[in-house]
Amino acid sequence: MRVLGVDPGLTRCGLGVVDGGRGREVGCVAVGVARTPPEAELPERLRDVADEVERWLDEHRPEVVAVERVFSQHNVRTVMGTAQVSGVVALAAARRGLPVAFHTPSEVKAAISGSGRADKRQVTTMITKILGLAAPPKPADAADALALAVCHLWRAPMADRMAAAQARSAELARNHRAKLKAAQQAAQRSAPRTGGFPR
């Protein structure tokens, strides 16, 4: 499976493409950053990010897009920009019929380093080692994008199994309710009627 990982941001949007093999085998295909000037107007910056994301989608043809889930920060302006870029990325993927998966920073850190509290330097060190890269990806946004892609590759099989188990459980529950209802209706039909006057 080929995954495009996206670490959304207006000034720097990390992009990383990773191929998954058997088990936990992963390989880096491409890594980079889409940049926009802070002095530019918001619509122009979003357009530029969208153009670059679409170029990556066309060039690398991923099967799924993994995006960092926006979380609450003290800087509301930063959160808004990150959320807007996430929306642009999701839209570009949806137009190509690609599924989009969102992962929290703690999920990514835990998948890559074993600790949901790892810092950016630890994540960069681990993703460099996991992918066998000659040098750490820079800036950190690029490393985070690769980490998102690897996180999805490693978490997706478990998530699929959980979703299948939940669907099976829901189906069994529906069948049980249907049988129970049918049994109750049958019991009501066969119950002797009482009351009334003989003719």
Give the topology.
Layout: E1 2-7, E2 12-20, E3 26-35, H1 42-60, E4 64-68, H2 76-95, E5 100-103, H3 105-113, H4 120-130, H5 140-190
Parallel strand pairs: 1-4, 4-5
Antiparallel strand pairs: 1-2, 2-3
Helix pairs in contact: 1-2, 3-5, 4-5
Structural account:
The protein is α/β, with parallel strands linked by helices and 199 residues long. It has a single domain (2-160), classed as Nucleotidyltransferase, domain 5. The protein is 55% helix and 17% strand. The chain has 5 helices and 5 strands. It has helices at residues 42-60, 76-95, 105-113, 120-130, 140-190, and strands at residues 2-7, 12-20, 26-35, 64-68, 100-103. The protein has a 5-stranded mixed beta sheet with strand order 3-2-1-4-5. Helix 2 (76-95) links the parallel strand 4 and strand 5. Helix 1 (42-60) crosses helix 2 (76-95) and helix 4 crosses helix 5 (140-190). The protein is elongated and about 80 Å long. Mg(2+) 2 binds at residue 68. It catalyses: Endonucleolytic cleavage at a junction such as a reciprocal single-stranded crossover between two homologous DNA duplexes (Holliday junction). Mg(2+) 1 binds at residues 7, 141. Residues 175-199 are annotated as: Disordered.
Low-confidence stretches: 160-164
Overall number of structural domains: 1
Helix content: 55-70%
Mean pLDDT: 88
How many helices? The count is: 5
What is the count of β-strands? Answer: 5
Distance between the termini: 78 Å
Shape: elongated
Task: Give the full name of the CATH homologous superfamily.
Answer: Ribonuclease H-like superfamily/Ribonuclease H
Just name the CATH architecture: 2-Layer Sandwich
Order of secondary-structure elements: EEEHEHEHHH
